[in-house]
Structure formats: structure tokens, C-alpha cells
Amino acid sequence: MQRIRSVGVLSFAIISAALHACMGLIVLLFLLPFGLITMVYGRRGGAAGGILLLIFALFAPVLYAVMGFVMGAMGAAVYNLVAKWLGGIELVLEPAAPPAGAVAPPPPGIAPAAG
Predict the structure, then answer these.
(1) The pLDDT of residue 69
(2) If you write DSSP's letter for every residue of the chain in order, what string do you get?
(3) Taking a C-beta distance cutoff of 8 angstroms, is the pair 15, 72 a contact?
(4) What global pTM score does this model have?
(5) Is 115's pLDDT higher than 60?
């Protein structure tokens, strides 16, 4: 059994930012058509609302990434603090199977066959 005793705050924050930026791109895909439809078919003031929706859609990935970075850093720091008190998360790990067709290396301490 392995235990995660601490997490690198900066590395976790960067990964969190990247994941949240991807989610922001998904939000962009949904908001962009609605902004365009609102601009074209909206009533009075619809164009202004559509423009604001388009602006938010374009900045959503950046906003999501920034918030993901901040929240990821805070989450990793809090995890490290709590893991000191409670011991961290326990994991059961197993070695990965070699890819199909690959020859597995010999176990440690055994010399490979000559030939």
C-alpha cells in the first residue's frame, strides 16, 4: 500500500488550471451559438446582450484557468496540511502490464539470456 503524504502545490495548480481551461472551452462551445442567436434574433437590446454573452464566452477559458490555478493551489496546500495530521490518502498500486507484443524485462537479479 502506498500513501500520498503531500502534493506539489505548483504542479497541482498547473494541472488544475489546464483542466479548468478545457472545461472553459466546453462552455465556450455552448455559449458562442447562444450569443450569436441572441444578437441576430433578439428584440430591443438583444444585440447588446448577445455581445456580452460572446465576450464572456471568449474569456471563459481564461477565467476558468485562472480560477482553476488559484483553487488548485489552495486545495493542494490544504491537503498537505490535513495529510500531516491524518496521514494522507492510501492507494493500492500494481505494476502496469507491458504492451501487447512487448517482451517483459527479466526480474531483478536474473541476467538476460545470451543469444
Answers:
(1) 97
(2) -EEE----HHHHHHHHHHHHHHHHHHHHHHHHHHHHHHHHH--TTHHHHHHHHHHHHHHHHHHHHHHHHHHHHHHHHHHHHHHHHH--EEE---PPPPPTTPPPPPPTT-PPPP-
(3) yes
(4) 0.70
(5) no
